[in-house]
Amino acid sequence: MKKILNIVCVDDEKIVLDSLNSQLTRNFGNNYNYEFAESAEEALEIIDELRSDDEDIIYVVISDWLMPGMKGDELLEEVRKRVANVKTILLTGHVDSNVIRAIEHSGKGIECIYKPWNEEQLVNLIKGE
Amino acid sequence: MRYLVILLTFFMYAFAYAQQPLIKLNAGIEKYQFLHEIPYFQDSPLVKIKDSLEKLQEAAKVNDELSGSIRLLYYDKAYRERLTGLDTTEYRILRLAAEAHEKNLKRLEADALQTLAEIYKDNKEQQSAAIEQYLAAYAIYKNLDYSAFPLKQHYTYNLGVMMLKYQDYANARIYLLEALHTKTGKTFNEATSIATAVGLVFRNTQQYDSAINYFQVAYDSAVRQKQDIWFGISKGNIGICYFYKHDYTGAEPLLKEDIESSIANSNLRNAVGSMIVLATIYSDQGKFAESERLLLRALSLCYKKSFWHDYGLSKKIYGLLYVVYGKNKKYQLSYLYCDSALRASDSAVSQNNAAALAKVYEKQNYLKKKLADEKLLNETRLRKVVNDKLQIEQQQLLYKFIIGFLVVVLIVAFIVNRFRNNLKQISTTVQDSAETVVKKMSIVIISIATCAAALVWTALYYYYYGFCLITTLPFIYFLAVGPALIIYFFSKKQYILVNVQLICIFFCTLAIELASGGFKGGIVILWAFLAPVGALMYQGLRNAIVWMVLFITAILFLVVFHEQLANSFHPIPETAQFMFNCMNILGPAFVIYFSMQFFVKSVIRDGRLLQENNLKLSSTLGELELANKKTESAYQALQETHIKLVQSEKMAVLGQLAAGVAHEVNTPLGAIKSSAEEAGHAFDDVLSDCLWMTKTLNEKDKDAFLDFVMSVNPSRETLSTREEREIKKTMRSRFAELNIENAHYLSDRLVQVGIYEMSPALELLAKHEHFEKLVMLTYNILNQKRGNQTILLAVDKASRIVRALKTYAHTSDSNTMEPIDLRDNMETVLTMYHNRLKQGVTVIKNYENVPQVLGFPDQLNQVWTNLIVNAVQAMDNKGTLSIGIFNDGENVTVSIKDTGNGIPKEIQDKIFTPFFTTKGSGEGSGLGLDIISRILESHGASISFDSEEGVGTTFYVKIPAIKPA
Known about the structure:
- The complex is a heterodimer of chains A (about 130) and B (about 950).
- With about 130 residues, chain A is of the alpha/beta class.
- Helix content of chain A is about 40%, strand content about 25%.
- A five-stranded parallel β-sheet of chain A has the order 2-1-3-4-5, sandwiched between helices.
- Chain A is globular.
- Chain B is mainly alpha-helical and about 950 residues long.
- In chain B, strands 2-4-5-7-6 form a five-stranded mixed β-sheet.
- In chain B, a hairpin with a 3-residue loop joins β6 (about 940-950) and β7 (about 950-960).
- The chains are: A alpha/beta (about 130), B mainly alpha (about 950).
- The interface of A and B includes residues 18, 38 and 96 of A.
C-alpha cells in the first residue's frame, strides 16, 4: 500500500477547519490524508497516534495561533521537536501582532500566513515552493 | 464747664460792683470826718448803689460773701440814716461778723469789723472799742494782699490815725508806714493823707527833718493827684516844722502860701492855725503891725465861722494879741485882750480839763482793753502751745501704733514668706491643680493674717477699754479661726476653715461693732464684708449672695438703730479712733485687693489663653482656607485628569481588544473567502460530472444516485473533530469491508459533507462500479451547501463581533440613561472577550429572569469588562469564571466570581483607591476599580466583594431595577 502522508490542521474554529478541508481536498485530492484538531492538545494526540505506525508520516502541520491552552507557536515548536522534516505553518488572524512577527523571524522554520488567507499561497507553502 | 466760666465771670463783675459802693461808703465815712454837714447818702453815688444793688440781689443769692457785704451795706446805711440805733446796728454787724467767721469768709468778716470800728469811731466814748475792732480787722487782712482785699491800705491808715490820736506814736508810725507802702490799685489811694499823718507823727516826736520829708511826699502826691486843698495844708505843715526849728525865714513864705490856699479852698480852720503861727513869727521878729493885722483877721474868721467855741484857738489869738499890743506899748488894748484871753483861758481850761478827763478815762479804757487783749492773746498762745504739744504727743502715739501695726504685718508677711514652702506642703495635697493651690494658700494666708490682726485688736482694745466684752470678741475670733486652721492642716478639708472663717469674720466684727456703739464706735463692720467676698471666692455665687444680703441687713440695722447704739459708745481718744478707722479700712481693703488681683490675674490668663487659641484658630483657619482653595483647584485639576484617565483607560482596554477583535473577525472572513472559492470550484466539477453521469449511467443507476443524494439530510449539528474522527473510523471500516478503493479518502469526504452513516441507498450505491466518482459528485454537490452554511455561520459570527464592538464602544450622545437588559449587556462583553476567555477559563453563566435597569450601556460594559479582566488576571487565565445575574426585587445583582488567589486582607480596604494597583509599573493604571465605583455611583448602584485567599473573589454589583409601571 502506498504511503500516504498526513496534513494536520489545528484551529479552535470549526469553520476554519471545514474551509481548510475543502481546499486541501480539491487541491491535493487523495494524495494526502487530512486530519483536523480543535486544539493543540488534540493535535499532538493525533500526531502521536499517527506516528505510532510510521515516524515520518506527518508532512505538514497548519495551526492557528491563538487557541485555548497551548498557543500555535508552542505547538509547532513541539511538533518540530518530535517530527523531523515537518512543514509547520502558522495560520493567524493577528495581522498586526508583534508576537507573530517575532515568531516569523525567529528562524525556527515556522511559516506564517494571515487570515483571511490566499488559497494559492497556502497550497504553494504546502507544496514547498 | 462753659456755663461755670460764664457764671464765675459774672460773679467777678458783680463783686467789683459790690466793692464799689463799699469803697464809696468808706470814702464817704472819711469825708464825714472832715465835713460834718454833707449827707453822704443823698449823694449821686447812692443812685448808682441802688442800681447796683438790684443787680447784686440775684448774684448774692448764691454768694455768701456778696450777700454778707450787701447786708453789711444795708445795716450801715440804716444806721447812717438814723433809722436804727447804734445798739441794733452794732448787734447786727457783730452777728454778721460771727457768721462770716463761721463760714470762713475772711474779707466779709474784716469788712464787718472795720465797719463796726468806723461806727465806734464816730462815737467819742467808744474810741478804744473802735481801735479794738480795727485791730481785729487788721489781724485778718494783714494776711491778705491787695488783689484779695483792695481796702487794705485804707483800713491800715484808719488804724494808724487812731493810734496817732492816742499819741501811741510808735504803733501809729508802724501802721501808717505800712499803709503808705501798701501797693494800691486804681480803686483807692490815700497817699496824700497817709504821708501827712506820718509827717504829723514825726513832727509830734520832734523829728522835724523826717516830718518835712513826709510832708513833702504828701505835697508831691497832692500835686500828682491834683488835690488842691492839700497844696496849702502840706506847705503849712512844712512851715510849722520850720517854725519849730526857729527857721523863720524858711517858714514865712510857706505859711503865707498855706493861708492863701486854705482861704481859697474854704479850709478856714487850717488858715486860722497857720495865721496864728505866722503871727507868732512876726511878733518874735518885732513886726507888730503885721502880726496885729493877721491876728485880727484870724479873729474875724473865727467869729465868722463860729470857731468861737474852740476856746483853745481863741485863747491863742487873744493871748498873742495881748503879747503883741503889750510889746507895741498899746497897753489899753493889751489889757483888754489879756482879759479876753484869761476868760477864754478859763473856758479853755475847763473845756480842756473835761476833755483831758475824758481822755484819761479813754486812755485808761484803751490800756485796759489792750492789756486784756494781750492777756487773751497770751492765754491763747499758751493754750495753743499746750494743744500743739498734746497733738504732737498723740500723733507720735499714732505713728507708734502705725509702725507697730506695720511691724506686725511685716512679721506675718515674713513668716508666711519664709515658711511658704512648708506652708504649701501642709496646706495642699499633691493632686491639687495650680488654681486650687493658689486658693488654698490664699485662705490659709488670710486666716493667719486675720488671726494676727485679731491678736493686735485684742491688745489694742485691752489698752483702751480694759477687760470687757469688746476686748474678748477679737480674741474669740482668734480662738475659733486658729484651731480651724490647725484642723485644716491635718484634715486638708477646706470647707471647715472657710465656713469658720466666714462665720467668725462676719459675726465677730458685727458683735464688736454693736458693742462699741455702732458707727459712732468705728467701722469694724467693714471686716464683715470679707464674708461675701470669701464666699464668692470659695463657695460660689449663691452663698455669696446670702452673705451679701446678711451684710446689707447688718448695715441697715446699724443705720436704723444708730441713736440707740450710740448710747453704749465708750469714748476713746480721737487718735485711737482715727487709727482704728485707718486699720479697719486698710485691713479689708488689702484682703479684697488681693482677692481681686487673684481673680483678675486668672481672668487675664484665661483671656490671654483664649486670645492665643483664637489667634491659633484664625491662623489655622487661614491655612485651612488656603489649603482648601489649593485642594479645590487640585481637585478640579484631578477631575479633569480623571475624565481624561477614564477615557484613556477605556482606550487602553479597546487597544487590548483590537488584536483579539481583528482575529475574531479575520477568522470568519477567512472561512467565508475559502467557502466562496470552494463553492465556485465545486460548481465547475459538478457541472462536468453531471454531464458525465447523464452520458454514462443508465436510468436505473441514475435514479438510485438521485435517490441517494435526495435522501441525504446532512446533519445540521456541528460535530467536534473528535466525534468526526470516530464517525470517519466507522465509515472507513465499513468501506473497507465493502472492498472499496480509496475507502479512507471517500469516507472522509462523506463525513465532511455531513453524511455520518451508511444508509441503504449508500450501501446500494457502494456496489456500483463508479462509486468513487459518484461519491465525489455527491461531495461536490453537498459541499456547496456546506460552504454556504459555513458562510452563514461565519457571517453570523463576524456580525456578532462587530455588533458587540459597536455596543461596547458605544457612547451615548444623550445624557439620559436608557433601559438596559443586563444579560444582553453581559453577553456583549463576554463576546468581546471570547478569545481571551477561551484560553483556559471556563465560564459558567447563571442568569435569572431580571427586570431592566436604567443606565449608560457603554459605562456598564466598562464595569463588566474591568471586573472580568481582573477576575481572569486573578486566576492567571486558568479557572472558572461564574457570572450570575439575579433579581432581588428592587435591585438587579450581578456577581462575578473567580477561582483566583483572592485579595490579601491587608489591601482589601485599598482596592477602590485611585492609582492603587498590584500590577507592575506601566501594566495597569490603578484606576480600574476607582472608575467602576464612580460609574456605579452615578447609576445609584453599589459594589461589594467577598474574598478568601486561595479560594477566590466574588464581586457583587447591585443596580436599582426599573419598577414596573
